[in-house]
Amino acid sequence: MILNVKSLKLIICMSYLGLCTNALALESDSKQPINVEADRASINKKTGTSTYSGNVVVQQGSLKITADKLTVYTRKGKLDKMQAQGQPVAFSQRTDRNNKNISAIAGRMTFEAVNNIIIFEQGAELSQGANTFSSNRIIYNMDKDTVDAGKKSGGDRVTITIQPADDTNANRKSMP
User: Fold this and answer.
1) I need a labelling partner for 97 at 20 to 30 A (CA). Which of 41, 51, 129, 138 fits?
2) What is the pTM of this model?
3) Closest among 120, 18, 24 to 59, alpha carbons compared
4) d(CA 126, CA 60)
5) What is the mean pLDDT of residues 110-129?
6) Environment class of residue 112 by beta-carbon count within 10 Å: exposed (0-12), middle (13-18) or buried (19+)?
7) In whole angstroms, what is the distance from residue 74 CA to residue 126 CA?
8) How far apart are alpha carbons 130 and 128 in whole angstroms?
């Protein structure tokens, strides 16, 4: 189902979705309309909860999230938390920094607006180009621009793959 204008009032808080990667995202993304498609939508204005299920697709500019289920929690008309679940949840967005996509997959993705963090859980993997970061749990703090991965108690391995920089252009500049 494509949401109509009345429903958009209740999910305008989704504009905060653009904040999920505000440090890296295309600046123009936050100025784009948010489109949400799902097989079903349940919106409870009294509790401030909106649930979208079945082939959920959220797009805003270059940002795209696909999930089996997306639940949006608001408090006093402002975004509190968003949780996406799927097999897997997929996230992608183009960056201003180097005009490449950042992609993520996980079984669950939670955006906590108050703390300005995204938590990727259940087989999480972040990637940009051939560089990857994987763990069962990855926490990205957008205010501090930090990433924490693994469990505090241990037992969860973190795998990071960083490809060597392409020095081709650097070598050409240094040659006479």
Assistant:
1) 138
2) 0.73
3) 18
4) 20
5) 89
6) middle
7) 27
8) 6
Q: Which of 68, 74, 69, 72 is nearest to 82 (CA)?
A: 72
Residue 114: which pLDDT band, with cuts at 50, 70 and 90?
Answer: confident
- Rounded Cα distance between 104 and 39, Å, is 23
Task: Report DSSP letters for 64-117, one per residue.
Answer: EEEEEEEEEEEETTEEEEEEEEEEEEEEEEEBTTTS-EEEEEEEEEEEETTTTE
The DSSP 8-state label assigned to residue 158 in this structure reads: -
Q: CA distances (Å), 17 to each of 34, 79, 166, in order?
A: 9, 9, 33
Residue whose pair of structure tokens reads 């995202």 in the numeric block? 25
Q: What domains lie within the chain, and their CATH numbers?
A: 5-166 (2.60.450.10)
